Amino acid sequence: MGDVRWRRFVLMLVPSLGALGVLGVGMAQGAVPVSFALSGRRMQVSADRLSGQGFGLYPVVVRSADGERHQVLSLTMRSAAVYGLCQSSVVDTPLGRYVVRLSTRDPARPSQVRGLTISARSIEADVDFGSLVLNKDARTLGADGRAGDYGVGALGFTVEHVKVDSWMVAGGTFQVTGLKVAIGRDVPTCF
């Protein structure tokens, strides 16, 4: 075993941490583009009701694992209470097609989410927006919104009977009350 050359170690560590910090701040502010590959498998997301603060909707392009680009709507929520949450996806396995479904057991008990982003192909819902702004600069609505692109923003929102055909769902924090996970050929999709 050799001796650690602490001076050399520190001389390499400090600039590396500085560069990492600059990249982290740049990604958080949207100045440095961040991308990740999606599986390419669509999924359904539904909820009986969502209510919360900080709603945004704007167009973006996502790339699936096969390299194909897809135009989607980025739906963002700063914080929300979600009632009757359901997510399902049809998967092909060596044993045939199966449905994987995640849902809440008690639709009357809300799940809490912060920093929610959904990449959606289509959205169906009944909405009630507070302080709605149409044609808002998409850059002000989320990290992946482009300056000058069309966007919709609202300070407060209540959305009911939600059905989303989606590529991806990401949450900064998800607190799900009574999660139920199932897989099977006879497991129903969310809608």
Short description:
InterPro entries: DUF6230 (IPR046198). The protein has 191 residues and is mainly β.
Portion of residues within helices: 10-25%
Mean pLDDT: 84
Sum up the overall morphology in one term: globular
The share of residues in extended strands comes to: over 45%
Instruction: Note poorly predicted spans.
Output: 19-38
Task: Please give the number of β-strands.
Answer: 7
Please report the distance between the alpha carbons of the first and last residues. 62 Å
- Sheet having the most strands: 7 strands, antiparallel
Radius of gyration: 20 Å
SS field, number of helical segments = 1
Instruction: Spell the H/E element sequence.
Output: HEEEEEEE
Number of domains: 2
**Structure classification:** mainly beta
Give descriptors for this structure.
mainly beta, 191 residues, DUF6230, single chain, Cholesterol esterase, 2 domains
Compile the SSE list and pairings.
Elements: H1 6-29, E1 43-63, E2 69-83, E3 86-93, E4 96-104, E5 111-134, E6 152-175, E7 179-184
Antiparallel strand pairs: 1-2, 1-3, 1-6, 2-5, 3-4, 4-7, 5-6
Describe the structure.
This protein is mainly beta and 191 residues long. It contains one helix and seven strands, in the order αβββββββ. Strands 1, 2, 3, 4, 5, 6 and 7 form a seven-stranded antiparallel β-sheet that branches. The longest helix is centred in the N-terminal third of the chain and has 24 residues, at 6-29. The protein is globular, with a radius of gyration of 20 Å. The model is unreliable at 19-38 (pLDDT under 50). This is Cholesterol esterase. It comes from Actinomadura geliboluensis.
